[in-house]
Amino acid sequence: MWITVILCTYNRCSTLAKALESLALESLPDSDEWEVLVVDNNSVDKTREVVEEFCCRYPGRFRYLFESRQGKSNALNAGIREARGDILAFADDDVTAEPMWLRNLTAALRDNDLAGAGGRILPHWTCAPPRWLPSEGRYASAPFALFDLGLKAGPLAEPPFGTNMAFRKAMFEKYGGFRTDLGPCPGSEIRGEDTEFGRRLLAGGEQLWYEPSAVVYHPVPENRLVKRYHLAWWYDKGRADIREVGIPRNGLRCKGVPLCLFRRLARWTLQWMIEVRRAQRFEAKMKLWGIRGAIAECCNELLATKRQVVERKLSP
């Protein structure tokens, strides 16, 4: 089996070296061929020097690719095009992978019809979580890019997260690459390019696998343990949801925005105002910010549609 690990990076040479060190220690069967393809998305720090050092230390194991078009999805798609493997695994430039991560993540893709797999993303806390941060709930840790469905392997009914997932390269040939209107880029922190692709596969009837023994550790820095980071993340998440599926077409609207969003806005505003427990109060505020983002993106899409109509009318 040929495996390519695609790792995209932008101005993170300080954490990149540690991530590459962990990947260099991966243990795979002797029969497997594998590589780590580092896609430099227009970095201006010492990213290239760090990668070239690993290319020299591990000849044939690491490769460097420069992608000048800014945006993570552009970098991911460039890596997919240049990858030699028929199985493509994905990791981030700030994670630490366990030595058996890649073997375990790709094991289920050897002899069956699975389209892809995902593993656990566990936290590496740099300090204690604040008391206002919700500790329960399925997606409470989503802003930290953590993914943990427990210790039982089995079929995945939801998409894995981008720093610990693998797909057959044929899936990108069949369904296309990552959407470039999603994923962080200059001036925008809207994400969701990874989960959108996974949902695309699931909607197409493809099967995904959850492998809990495939583990990477994602740092949780102090600058993500502030309220403004979480509120901004959920606001962008609301925008990404509308970009992915479009404005809901069913039900009544107010100036083009579905009334259901305004009802949810009112509900979570009230919940935020009356809740006295700190964590639950902030959880309501995060949901409120997500709805605000969804409404804002609906307005953006409606304005874009109107501009297109005007431009068509004015064109000769």
Q: What is this structure's SSE topology?
A:
Blueprint: E1 2-9, H1 13-24, E2 33-40, H2 47-57, E3 62-66, H3 72-82, E4 87-91, E5 96-97, H4 101-107, E6 116-125, E7 154-156, E8 165-168, H5 169-175, H6 193-203, E9 208-220, H7 227-245, E10 253-254, E11 257-258, H8 259-274, H9 278-314
Parallel strand pairs: 1-2, 1-4, 2-3, 6-9
Antiparallel strand pairs: 4-8, 5-9, 6-8, 7-9, 10-11
Q: TL;DR?
A:
By secondary structure, the protein is α/β, with parallel strands linked by helices. The protein has helices at about 15-25, 45-55, 70-80, 100-105, 170-175, 195-205, 225-245, 260-275, 280-315; strands at about 1-10, 35-40, 60-65, 85-90, 95, 115-125, 155, 165-170, 210-220, 255, 255-260. The model has no long low-confidence stretch (mean pLDDT about 95).
Describe this structure in words.
The chain is of the alpha/beta class. It folds into 2 domains: 2-224, Spore Coat Polysaccharide Biosynthesis Protein SpsA, Chain A (Alpha-Beta Complex); 227-314. Helices cover 41% and strands 20% of the residues. It contains 9 helices and 11 strands. Strands 1, 2, 3, 4, 5, 6, 7, 8 and 9 form a 9-stranded mixed beta sheet that branches. A two-stranded antiparallel ribbon has the order 10-11. Strand 10 and strand 11 (257-258) form a beta hairpin. The longest helix has 37 residues, at 278-314. The protein is globular, with a radius of gyration of 21 Å. The mean pLDDT is 93.
